[in-house]
Amino acid sequence: MRAVILGAEKPDGMLTALVAPNGLQPEQRLQIHRNNYRESLSNALLGVFPIITAFVGRPFVKGAALRFIDDNPPREARLGAYGGDFADFLEAFEPARSVPYIADLARLEWAIHILQNIDETTTLDGAAAHTALAEGRLALAPHVCLVESRYPIISLWMAGTGQMRAEAVHLDMGGQTALAIKQQGAVRLFPLDDAEFTLLSALSTDGTDFAATLDIITGLADRGVFTCRNDRSPL
């Protein structure tokens, strides 16, 4: 049954004998299940990725989603958890070659989607973050995500949400790294400079220049980025 719904096999006689026709051929009834499966998942993806849909159109994203679904069945029975690999799929999707920024924009949308469903935790102020770093226990708060791109993904996201004129965004503006953070129930985006991104990406890397990071940590702590690990295990 699973293989038939996923489109990997044709229904055999053993399976069709178990299907109550109720006015339809067993093959037709199984096709209804397959159509419902694909429609439910593709609509779920469209709901998670409205910004890329605004850029390339619903038919394009719908078609890409249906292709993605065929090779990427859900791993758990939760629609909200489906789609984490969609950005990687878009990066290799031949029809998306003309819009190379779409994959990174999808990564940003997925980060926002995940954060919307995560509870905020208590964070550290600057002094506490300095202490945690010195003790090797500084960590990113769970309601924080980083998305690095060689495209201006924050500006693109703002254009897609109507916060910035689309004609004001150009790919030659260069890359942007986004800090997505949930604050008071809403997900906000901040641009990170190279030093901030390097620090946040490698908090537990041996050889971090402690003195050089103090000012950066203070600024990031003001945004509610850090928490403290209860142990000294690697991030």
3D structure, described in words:
This is Putative DNA-binding protein. Residues 16-90 form the Putative DNA-binding domain. Pfam families: DUF2063 (PF09836). With 235 residues, this protein is mainly alpha-helical. It has two domains: 1-99, no CATH class; 120-235, Outer Surface Protein A, domain 3 (Alpha-Beta Complex). Helix content is 47%, strand content 11%. The chain contains eleven helices and five strands. A hairpin with a 2-residue loop joins strand 3 (177-183) and strand 4 (186-192). Helix 6 packs antiparallel against helix 7 (102-116) and helix 8 (126-134) runs antiparallel to helix 11. The model is unreliable at 204-208 and 231-235 (pLDDT under 50).
Characteristics of this structure?
235 residues, two-stranded antiparallel sheet, 2 domains, mainly alpha, three-stranded antiparallel β-sheet, disordered C terminus, Outer Surface Protein A, domain 3, elongated, 47% helix, 11 helices
